[in-house]
Structures
1.
Amino acid sequence: MPVIDSHLHLFRSVSESYPRTIYPGLAEADLDVPAEKLITLMESAGVDKAIVVPLGPEDHYLAEIVKQ
C-alpha cells in the first residue's frame, strides 16, 4: 500500500521573488522548504506521494513548482 503525506507546504524564504504570508512559530520569514528537500525527506521516510497545500492565498513558489 502506498504511503501518502496528505498535507504539507513548500515555500522559499521571503524575498522579492517569493513574497509569502509569515506565520510566527510555523513559517518564519527565513524558513526555506524547497521541493528538492521534500523529495529527499520523502525518500528517507518511505513516503510515495504527497499532497501540497498552499501556505497562503498567493504562493508564487508553489505556482512555479506546479509549472515544472
Note: Residues 35-45 form the longest helix (11 residues).
2.
Amino acid sequence: MDVKVMLFCMSIFFIISSIWFFLFHPCGHIQVPSPYFVLQDEGPNFNKLPDLRSVVHTYTERPKDDSNDTSLFDAKLSTDQYNSLENILNQFERMMVQLKLQNQWFLGVSSLLGSLQHHDVVPWSDGIDIFAPDHFRREILYALSVFAYNLTLFPYGLQDRLYLNEMSLDQSSPFVEINYYAIHIPNFGISIGGEYRFFKLDDVFPLVYRPFGRHWRPAPRKPINFLKYYLPIVEQTCTFHSFRSQYMPPIVVNCEELMNKFPFVNRCPIPQSEIVGEYLEQCDEYLVYPNGESAHKIRTVLDSNEVKSLLYTARYTSFECPK
C-alpha cells in the first residue's frame, strides 16, 4: 500500500475514533444518580460516600525503614514509603480532575486486587499501578510537568513512573506506575508492554469508586469480571509481583497460606431490610482478621454475581455474613 494512502487511512481512523470517544464513550453522558459513580470533573464526594479516613487498617506491621530486607510475602512498604505513594496518587488525582479526566483513569491490576482483597495496597506489594487513557497521554504528561511540580516523571518503555522529587530514583524508591489503555470499537483494549487484552466496555465503564486505603479511587464498574479477563484463575491464588524488579517472575501461593498473617476482605450481600430503590446493587465488604473478627465494614457498589464470587478474596470459616 502506498505510504500516503496508508497515512490518509490512519488519519481517517483517528478522526472517527476521536469522535466516537467524545460522543459515545460510555462514561461521557451517563446519568449519575449515585455518589459511587465517577464524574469527569469532580473527585469523590466525601459527604455522600462512607468516610474512610477513620477506617481501621491495623492489619500489619510495616517495616520501620526502607531497607526492604523482608521475605517475599511480608509487608514491603515502610510507613514513609506508603505515605509517599498516597501523596503521589493524591496529586495525580487532583490533576486529572482539573483536566476533566477523572472518569478515565482507574486502579491497575495489582492495586485493584489490593482493593478487593484488603481495601488497600496488597500488603506484600511494593508499589501502586494505575491505568490512564493513551488518547490523552501527551496532555497528562504536560499537566504533570505544570501542576505536579514536586513529582518526577520517569519514562519506562510504554509506561511512566511517578516519584516524589525528594526521593532518589533507585530500587528502594516507591513509585506509581502508569499504564496506558486504548479503546477499540466495539471492545476495550489495554496495552501492556505492547500486548493487547480485550474486555467488554460495560465491565469497565462507567467507573465507580472503590476503597483503597484512606481514599476512594476510580475502579472498573465490574472489577471481578475485569480481573478474570486479565487473571483467568479457577481457584484463589495470591501472587507476589515486584514493581521494582520487573524481570523477576511472579510467585504464586494459595491465599489460605497467608490467612493467618493478613486479614482479607469478605464480601456479603446487604441486609434485605436495607435494600433501597436504586438500580445499583451494593455489597457490604468486611476486612476480617484470622480470628473471624472484622476490622471494618465498607459498603460498595458490586453486582450480585460478583458479591457471591469466591475469586480475589479468602473467606474465613469463622466469619459469617449478617442476615
Note: The longest strand covers residues 176-184.
3.
Amino acid sequence: MDFTGRQREGSAISTIYIDRRFSGPPDSANGGYACGLLARYTGNPAEVTLHSPPRLDTPLTVTRGDDGQVFLMDGEIPVASGKPWAGEITVPDPPTLEQVMNTPADQDITERIWYHGCFVCGTERAAGDGLRIFANRRLAAGGLADIWVPDSSLADSRGLVPAEMIWAALDCPGAWVCQMDKARVVVLGRMAADISAPVPAGRPYIIMGWHISGQGRKTQSGTALYDASGQVLARSLSTWIELQTVPNLPG
C-alpha cells in the first residue's frame, strides 16, 4: 500500500497528539487507544491496522484517502490505517459480577506482562491515572475476565466513557489471553471494534478476553465489555504479533 502517495493525494483532516499518560510500551501509545483515536474518523464499527509504533507527544496527522480510508501519519511514516468494518464478532455469555469477584486472580499471568507502566493494564499505574484492567481471572468456561469501574475523570460532559477509552479497555485483555500459559511479548497488529451502547463512568463492568486462533507468531483474540446485567456494550477482534526479541525496558 502506497501510504506516501495516499497522503499526498488525500486531504489532512486533523492533527492529534498522544499524551505520555496513554503509553503502552514506554515510548509509544497503547495500541487500542491509538486505534480508537483514528476510529473517530471512520465511524463505528471500525477496523484499524497499526503499521508502526504511535509516538508520544508528537504531532500525528490524520488524512483521508480517495477510497475513504483514513491514515495516521508521523511525517512520511505510516502509523495506522482505518476503515469502516462490517465483520461479526461472536461473544460468549459472560460470568456474573459475583462470579468474577469470587474467581481468584492468577498472579502467574500478571507476572508475565512486560509493560507494567501501560495505561490500560500496567500494575504500576495508580487508580485514576491508568485503567488498571487486570484480566487475570481464569473462567471455568475458558478465557479471562476482570471487573472495570471507569474513573469519573474519564467521562465526557455527558458522563460517558469516550470511544477511544473503550477501545483501550478492549485492547489489553486480548494481549493477556496470549500469555495465559507462557510468557510472550506481543504487540497489537490489527483491531476491529464495535461499540453498541453507551458506557457511563463510575459503574462496574465485566471485561472478558478469549482465544480465537493462533498460527506462528500471530494470535487472534476476542474481547467484550458487559454491563452488570450481562448486556454486551462493546466487542473487539484483535490480532497480536509475538516479538522475536525481548525489548529492553526501564527498571
Note: The chain has five helices and eleven strands.
4.
Amino acid sequence: MSNHAYMITNELWTWTSENRRGNYHFLSVPDDIEKEIRTHAAVRRLELGLPTKRGWGAVKVEATIGKTVWQTSMFPGIDENAYVLPVKASVRKAEGIVVGNKVSCKLELL
C-alpha cells in the first residue's frame, strides 16, 4: 500500500433520509486515521492550486472491498471528526454484503 492507503474494518450501516427516498449505506472510518486523511486532502488541494476544502469536506478515494474497486468520495459524518464511506448497491451486491456485516476495505487517498 502507498503512504496514503489504509485498511479499515467496520460494520456496514444504513441511514434513511427523512423524505424516505432511499437508504444510504456507509462504513465509518476509524478516528485514528481521520487527522491524516484531513491533512492529506488539504495538502493535495494546495498542490493543485485549489481551495483546501471540497464541498462538504469531501475527500476523493479509491476503495476496494473484496474484488470490487471503485472511486468515490468520503464525507465528514455527523461528528465532523470522522469520515463515512458510501458503499453503493452494486458493490454490496457484488460482494454479498448487507447491513451489520463486518467489512474490510482498502482506502487509497487520491
Note: The radius of gyration is 14 Å.
